[in-house]
Amino acid sequence: MSNLVPAFFQLLSEMEAKQTSSGIIFVACSNLSKDDLEVLKNHFEQEPPAAVTHYNYDKTKNILGVLLEEQKLGTTHFHALRVKDYLREKQLLAGSVAIASFPENARTTPQMLLKMLQNLEQQKSQGEIHIFDPVSGGSEKDPTSILLVNPDQTVNDFLTIYLKRKGYQVIVASDGVEGMQKYEESMPDLVITDLNLPVMSGYQLMERIKHAENDRESKIVILTDKRLEEDVQKSFALGASDYITKPFSPVELEARVKRLIS
Amino acid sequence: MRDFLLYYGMFAVYYVIAINSLYFIIMMFSFKNILGILKSSVYSRFQKLSGSEHVPPISILVPAYNEELTIIENVRSLLALNYPRYEVIVVNDGSKDDTLQVLTREFKLEASAHMPIQPLLQTSNIRGIYHNPAYPNLYLIDKENGGKADSLNAGINLSHYPLIASIDADSLLEKDALIRIAKVYMENPEETVAIGGDIRIANGCKIEDGVVSDIRLPDKFLPMMQSVEYLKAFLGGRIGWSAINGLIIVSGAFGVFRKDYVIKVGGYREGYPGEDMNIIIKLHKYMLENKLPYRVAFCPDAVCWTQAPDSFRILGSQRRRWGRGNLKNMIEYGQHMVLRPKYKLFGMLTLPFNILFETLNPYFRITGLLALIGYTLLDMTNANVLVLYGLLNVIYGVLLGVGALLLEEIAFRRYPRIRDIVKMLFYTILMFFGYRQVGVIWRFLGHIEFLRNNNSWGTMTRKSWQAEGNKNISSLEARG
Question: Which of chain A's ends, N or C, has fewer CB atoms near its CB within 10 Å?
Fold first, then answer.
């Protein structure tokens, strides 16, 4: 394990105890010597922001770690740009940059820091800044899959684009039977379905999903025109996790989806 | 003799002028109203309305007689309508085919012994009511054969909601047809007793899962003719009549009624065809006799797609049936209501108009034509009278047809391709060379059947929607 993780984790924990956040920057470098590090420290201490900054270098993995006390993601990002430019000037930059702010982006755990480092090592690109996001970006190997069952083509297209941009994997079906078939094929984490579906109604779909063989339970969100009490009541009775009526806000929908999945 | 023939011929000419001028005036009312209808449908939020608590619940009644081929698709499409609260009641009218079995198998319906049914209207014996909790808003009544009106009455007895919609088992409702009609009802729920929807011909359209997915004009000759004919009748005629509250018919294929008034007028009449016109006449009569404010509305943007007969034999039987039903209704109510001031516009205009220009139409036209032919034969020098008669019919008719097309293009544009518009225009003109004349003869034959006391329902063989759809796909493939 990199020596950065325990060192930074300790600092972060102290910050968290004081209820302040701190920014973390990891940069992949090429052979940064001890002297180089000192020069770098001095260079940045002369300039604002006047934040308490810790510099640390992992010799084995060639990663420079920077921790900014009491700073949010915005300042961290700004600082990362400057660090990147500095390193590039000195021709010490070897890979990309990962930034995060704790606990803004993720919970403070050694695992998260480790994950962040792993992400950085996987990035092949030169000099790009990646904001660490454990929900979507952090788990690119296995994105959350959502099955969208809706007879309205426009809603389907729109939501597919929207949710894909948010990092989800989206599967679309336009009626109940197709929905069930796609469900069995893909076993999604979450199903967003209308109640008013051709061939097989939303209720029947929910019932089938409940009885389907699935090792992890899929959450069901209803997205429908129907605003009758009976429909709301029946949907929750059949195991729906949430009930959203049209016209809907995609931002709200995504927020609710996110809550259900994490 | 020659003079008599000429005078009679001239009378027929004036008759044709009068009838077409009246149609023209009615169409003007349609034009006047269409923009309002267009605006209200553009600015209404049907999507939001279709989930609202405030929309009145509707019971959809589907009388089915020997419909095993189309019934599943139809019920499926009805179960997926955009409407907050409704039920579908299929009434199997003692079918001789497997309509009952097909339905119970498909929806796993089971006979339920304790379904409460109110004996509001007399019907033939009910053999059983089927239901499945998995489809809570689907009911199936199995009863002995008693006709379409009898089936509707049985449906009313079981229905749980204050509005009823009657829908033919061979028709497909557009998903928001019901909500559009409900909107018209909600504009004036106290006074609206009946609302008709627009009927269009589905032949040629592509149908998937009980939904019209690709709107096309029919390929065959007869359905195409009917397509243009329906357009003319519904858009050119009914919008105008509804504007002056003189609508005499709400098509049996798709109409919504207030159940309480339907029950008050004794439900649907059995024994004769034309029960759809009959119920509207009875509603007019009841409301006028009791001096209640009311309206019979027409909602042209609520569309119901129906399968048109594509053979002369079946179309003829349908038209003879219409002729029979029309004559029966006119005799029964005409003698009590025509020109009685008590019945206001309905008695003073709608009914006389219908008797003179619809029911008696064949007689005037045929005899007029014969008289003119006879006259011309006696005196060839005056052949231009015959030409005049023919031209008058054609030109006026085409004018009306084009007016209806214009209405369609202004307001709805269901057929957006230029090719389709040209095709409709062509058939509008073609209609006057043969098709209309045959129609007049069918109506005449219907009257003869009525007088010979033949009141059977006539056969209407259906084709499966599925087959229709597949056929279309293959014809498309062949084309391109």
Answer: C
